[in-house]
Amino acid sequence: MIHITFSVFQNHNITGKIVIFVEKWEGYGTTVRYRAASRNEALRGAAGVLLKSVTPFSISSPHTGSGGRGAVIPSACLTIEEAEMLQRMYKRGKKLEIRMQIKSREVGKCTSRNTIFDIKGSTYPDEIVLLSGHMDSWDVGQGAMDDGGGMAVAWNALNIIKEMAKKDPRFAPKRYVSAPVLKTKCLRTLRVVFWTAEEQGMLGSQAYFKETEKDSLKKFFFVSESDQGAFKPKNDKSAFHFMGTRAQMKVLDEIVQIINDHNIPLSLVQSNDQGDVQFWSDKGVPSVNYVSDQGKDYYFYFHHTNGDYMTVFKDGDLDYVTAIFAALAHVLGNIDHW
Amino acid sequence: MIHITFSVFQNHNITGKIVIFVEKWEGYGTTVRYRAASRNEALRGAAGVLLKSVTPFSISSPHTGSGGRGAVIPSACLTIEEAEMLQRMYKRGKKLEIRMQIKSREVGKCTSRNTIFDIKGSTYPDEIVLLSGHMDSWDVGQGAMDDGGGMAVAWNALNIIKEMAKKDPRFAPKRYVSAPVLKTKCLRTLRVVFWTAEEQGMLGSQAYFKETEKDSLKKFFFVSESDQGAFKPKNDKSAFHFMGTRAQMKVLDEIVQIINDHNIPLSLVQSNDQGDVQFWSDKGVPSVNYVSDQGKDYYFYFHHTNGDYMTVFKDGDLDYVTAIFAALAHVLGNIDHW
């Protein structure tokens, strides 16, 4: 039984059958819903679920991902090639017999720990400018893109700020600064967090948020994340996805202009998807989520595959995104107020 | 031991070692030489050979291909990701220990047969306009692109000519035709050949050439091939690669213009690479080899991989290339002379 849309699906008796989803790619946010459907709908009597990998492009590339959680029937991803072949056979009226042999088990819970780096603020040490990425990945590939790159650029942004301030006292952007700035410090604390257990549903950031929830608005001046590939921006479709007030957006727009002045294309757009830092965004803390133009389709060529290797990053990718986050953190660490 | 260029390679003692080639992609024709090097150079005492897959792009995609023939040591392809990881480890001074476990054997020779379709010519049945593709493929994928598509468009071009002539008597292009044209026929014989054993080194076309060699110039009015992906042409970098005289090129240029007039971009360029029909080209029979703009880099994303599935062909690919070959065959089947 092969299904293209949920509405078609409702009218079929799937008891004892293997349900195969051969969904169209309509962008990750839309298409990934079919993974959840594997769980929700197939439990209505299906024997198993097969899903075309959630990707716009394939070289016989299976993509894994969450979706089967809580299911009591086997569920797996097919490559685009395999799924479309089954669809062609089905359309020709062939009887499809598939045997699924899947070995998997839940290994139980264990403790994982977020990793936190700080450069203590000189004047407002209790106000935090937060950069972040997540340190867990799927079992396929190296997790270089999802999300080794996010961690690398966040950590390196702090490192660069520290190193540049040592070498060049003029590094503090005077037009934003009214208080004296120590050579190696910003006014505010710059914090990098490597989240754990993002792939299981942002468990690391959620736990950290719960710890800090009481005074989160007071404590966090700004939060940010990079988890859609630390690819250098190639055009003005690369953007900070922003949540916050109009006044805060105006300040961020000035920072984007500084970055643009250095010939780095970047836009600022409003968005409700802030990834791991969404917990704070929802409480009113201003935030950005970095999404390069390649973070839309191209990122999903490699997402949750054996192709998520260091090889995805080309010359300059990590350096450019480091520069963007360094500029962002340094300015926000030193401005008087939003 | 990791090698980038042949010249570096010459100065190393490789006895008892596994040689890993991490070559740069410089286009297929150039880069594929490293596969032959696996055989030729590694026999100088090496224990085995690993080669970065000959491709410009990878999603953890191994590519197979000839190269190890005649070698007495194991030889295999790595994905780009694996090869570049080993290179990074090597550059960091890591000691690399690799165990190769490869099962392969030569199963001996057997008979294979070219498949030939004819539409007999009405006036010059002994003059042949030949279209071709090859029907064998590697053991990976379906061989849809390499070269199922080439066969499909060649066969379908003949089919379309036959069907259109039945329906539309005006189909014969009068300005080229001096003799009366029967409704379902061209003046010359149109022949399609599906070659066998191209992947083993063009054995099928070579055998056929040897059979016909004696009067090949007299018998073959024109020969052609499509073995670089039957992708529809998207821009004027898509071309017939041509071998022949200036006068013949002028005729082909007129055909290309007819195709262009129907909003299909196509160019005509000189080239010495005619694939399976090279045997005839070298004897002076005019020929073209169809190479779409996607036949250069993009084709090699899937070439000799598990991604060589029907999925590579998008809407219109096979139809457009069929149209190109049908126009080509029909005009050449009916012109008075070169």
TrEMBL record, chains A, B:
Give the UniProt keywords, A-Z: Carboxypeptidase, Endoplasmic reticulum, Glycoprotein, Golgi apparatus, Hydrolase, Lysosome, Metal-binding, Metalloprotease, Protease, Secreted, Signal, Zinc, Zymogen
By its UniProt entry, which SUPFAM superfamilies does this protein fall under? Zn-dependent exopeptidases
Q: Which InterPro entries match?
A: CPQ, Peptidase_M28
What GO molecular function annotation could you give as one example from this UniProt entry?
metallodipeptidase activity
How is this protein organized at the quaternary level? Homodimer. The monomeric form is inactive while the homodimer is active.
- UniProt record similarity statement: Belongs to the peptidase M28 family.
Q: What is this protein called?
A: Carboxypeptidase Q
